[in-house]
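Dissemination and training. As part of the outreach component of the grant, students in the summer workshop were shown how a complex can be specified as a set of sequence lines and then modelled as a single object. The example used during the hands-on session is reproduced here so that future cohorts can follow it. Participants entered these lines:
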Amino acid sequence: MSEKKIKVLIWDLDNTVWDGVLLEDKSVTLRAGVADVIKELDRRGILQSIASKNAHDDAMEKLKEFGLDQYFIYPQINWSSKAESVGIITQSINVGIDTIAFIDDQPFEREEVAFTHKEVLCLEETELDKLLDRDEFMPRFVTSDSKNRRAMYQSDITRNKLEEDFTGPTEEFLATLNLEMTITPATDDDLQRAEELTQRTHQLNTTGYTYTYDELRKFIESDEHDLLIASLNDKYGTYGKIGVCLIERNQTYWNVKLLLMSCRVMSRGVGTIMINHIISEASKAGVTLRAEFIQTDRNRMMFITYRLGNFEILKQEDNRYVLENDCTNVAKLPPYISLNVIKGKSKQECEVESEMA
Amino acid sequence: MQQNKELVRAFFGRFFETGNLTDDLDIFKAGFVNSLFAMQLIGWIEKNFSTTVSDEDLNLANFNSVNAIANFIERKGV
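and obtained this result:
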């Protein structure tokens, strides 16, 4: 079994983040070392939230006093059970429950969370000192996207709120965002992020193949492969590098070995735009497009995307499929997004080859 | 059947302008469709008509127009 990495740490406040109970003592003091842990986790791209039984405004005010309020997304400071708070946070951030850790000084709270969410890593506050050294909190890479992860989620919260308030059709809302997607061939600088995405992304992932940095590097150099990176911006800022696609080029068909998109952009329709871009390129090259697909209990959306994207089933063996699109129909780009395609060297060579053939 | 068509149309209306949409227009060719919409469409059919869309049902021809979807729902006997 692969070692699970924690994506979100959920903090208790009283006697965990600070010494004392805020309701009883307005002048609680920060626990020694806690600010350093919070800041370092933030730098590593591990998101942080709060599940605390407290008066919301008072607790947030106190965190502000400590200069820590901006580090937490979707803080749940209320009188609900902590299991419920953990559930809400997990859903709001849209990550797997098995990537959540929860730290609380009270055994009752830890047990209650563990009872409902068996896969959550529950930690005592005494484990705080060694927390940064634990393997689960050690991402393999810290990329520029990791460091900005919290900021990106915070702009997502602004966007989502606007989206909830918007009453017209989804496409009209998307049109207000000025979405810009860029597809580029991966460079050395992208590889850490690409590797990170192959490990972090499960829902919007067609095969779940993970590749190491070195393997990905070979694909960049290979004439038979295209490794594409998608990034996305809108008027609120950047979503960062959010998609990876690996294509293997053969004489008569291209094969999509891997297509994945970060769950954060699920509602932006970018997976389909990536596929349509590749269909269009394959169509120009006069080949068909195949796609490998390995079904899991979490990636049905990608199967639906392919199947309703005109991919026929060519082969199936248990949960492994080979799908094929004849590339005769190339869908138009939806009006709410603009697409910027940057071509690399290998791509141009391939176009020359196909013209000669 | 007519009623199902109306329901499908109303569902589409949450995502895009349906004013000029004819019952047989191929919504996938017309570029209305993205992954999320596709997923929500399948989810909506399953929930609203208490049926399951199996992997075998996931054929483009079953879902690419108002008519196709209404027919599919009818065939599922719901």
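The longest strand of chain A covers residues 237-249. Students were then asked to discuss how this feature might be tested experimentally.
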